[in-house]
């Protein structure tokens, strides 16, 4: 088993160094939106974000005005990492849990290398977890990886209450921050409102961790399935095309709900797969954020 130091070093060489050419020292501009410190109100220009429109000034002046914000001098990034039982799954390169911890290591390394602070909260389903207060420096990035790895695998304890953990983070974090919500989002409904509240005060990025086998049932005959969080068991016949089609529809509906919730909350989505490396989706996400920031055409 790799040590936290070796994991961080591997991520530095295989992931972070490849991202350097895209970030060019502008990682704040890519990952961090405007602060809540209002600097001025100016006339709307094509390409401005609709959510920045100041409707009170617009109503008085009878034309569109948008709010401009003063940039924060100090950034704190929070990693809210789901290590519940549903993350103990993986069929190709690694478990979702391992991928989530590796992403947390990459994010922590990038943030601390630029002199900013990073903090982390892990939330397994049984209510235990890890709280790592905000600090800067490479040792802090190492601690994030070490403490997350040290948490024992979860084998039950009930469904993940994602909404409760979002509420908890909202109470802890008062100053505007960058929040990475790392999860497979296999949680009961009820987290949508708390996510919207959090996104109104912070720049939130949802990092969905998934495994390819979660998207399609293979035709392998009759199998017993078990919910990793509740222990409930179910026998299904995967050779039945109707069963496989119903599962596809369930996955599509879940995806649509997630995308719609994030869109309404103003939260961007980064999807990572256990069957692929971290680099390509991160590069695509960086390109997307940069294009939107500079109002460039394309995704």
Features:
two-stranded antiparallel sheet; 299 residues; 10 strands; 2 domains; six-stranded mixed sheet; Rossmann fold
Please explain how this structure is put together:
The chain is of the alpha/beta class and 299 residues long. The protein has two domains: 250 residues, Rossmann fold; 34 residues, no CATH class. 41% of the residues lie in helices and 20% in strands. The protein is built from nine helices and ten strands. A six-stranded mixed β-sheet has the order 5-4-3-6-7-10, with helices on both faces. Strands 1-2 form a two-stranded antiparallel sheet. Helix 7 links the parallel strand 6 and strand 7. Helix 6 runs parallel beside helix 7. The longest helix has 25 residues. It is globular, with a radius of gyration of 20 Å. The two termini are 39 Å apart. The model has no long low-confidence stretch (mean pLDDT 86).
Count the DSSP helices. 9
* Total domain count: 2
Low-pLDDT segments? none
CATH uppermost class of the largest domain: Alpha Beta
Structural class: alpha/beta
Give the helix proportion (percent range).
40-55%
Number of DSSP E strands: 10
Distance between the termini: 39 Å
Order of helices and strands: HHEHEEHEEHHEHEEEHEH
Binned strand content: 15-25%
CATH homologous superfamily label of the largest domain: von Willebrand factor, type A domain
Strand order of the largest sheet: 5-4-3-6-7-10
As for the CATH topology of the largest domain, it is Rossmann fold
In short:
The protein is 41% helix and 20% strand. It has 9 helices and 10 strands.
List the helices and strands and how they pair.
Blueprint (H helix, E strand, L loop, with lengths): L3 H20 L3 H5 L5 E7 L11 H7 L3 E6 L5 E6 L14 H18 L3 E6 L7 E6 L2 H13 L11 H11 L5 E6 L8 H10 L1 E8 L11 E5 L6 E5 L3 H25 L2 E6 L5 H15 L6
Parallel strand pairs: 3-4, 3-6, 6-7, 7-10
Antiparallel strand pairs: 1-2, 4-5, 8-9
Helix pairs in contact: 1-4, 1-5, 1-9, 4-5, 6-7, 7-8
């Amino acid at each position: 088993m790799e040590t936290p130091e070796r994991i961080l070093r591997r991520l530095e060489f295989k992931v972070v160094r490849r991202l350097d050419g895209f970030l060019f020292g502008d990682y704040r501009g890519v990952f961090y939106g405007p602060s809540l410190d209002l600097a001025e109100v100016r006339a709307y220009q094509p390409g401005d974000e609709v959510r920045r429109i100041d409707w009170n000034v617009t109503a008085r002046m009878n034309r569109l005005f948008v709010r401009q914000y003063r940039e924060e001098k100090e950034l704190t990034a929070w990693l809210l990492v789901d290590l519940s039982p549903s993350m103990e799954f993986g069929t190709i390169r690694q478990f979702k849990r391992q991928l989530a911890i590796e992403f947390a290591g990459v994010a922590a390394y990038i943030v601390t290398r630029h002199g900013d602070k990073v903090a982390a909260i892990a939330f397994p389903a049984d209510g235990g977890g890890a709280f790592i207060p905000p600090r800067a420096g490479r040792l802090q990035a190492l601690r994030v990886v070490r403490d997350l790895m040290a948490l024992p695998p979860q084998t039950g304890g009930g469904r993940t209450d994602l909404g409760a953990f979002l509420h908890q983070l909202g109470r802890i974090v008062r100053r505007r921050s960058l929040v990475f919500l790392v999860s497979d989002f296999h949680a009961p409904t009820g987290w949508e409102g708390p996510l919207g509240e959090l996104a109104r005060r912070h720049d939130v990025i949802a990092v969905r961790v998934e495994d390819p086998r979660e998207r399609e049932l293979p035709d392998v005959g009759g199998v017993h399935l078990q919910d990793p969080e509740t222990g409930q068991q179910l026998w299904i016949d995967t050779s039945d095309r109707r069963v496989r089609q119903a599962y596809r529809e369930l996955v599509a509906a879940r995806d649509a709900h997630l995308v719609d919730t994030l869109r309404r909350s103003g939260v961007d989505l980064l999807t990572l797969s256990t069957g692929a490396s971290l680099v390509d989706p991160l590069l695509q996400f960086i390109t997307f954020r940069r294009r939107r920031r500079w109002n460039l055409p394309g995704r």
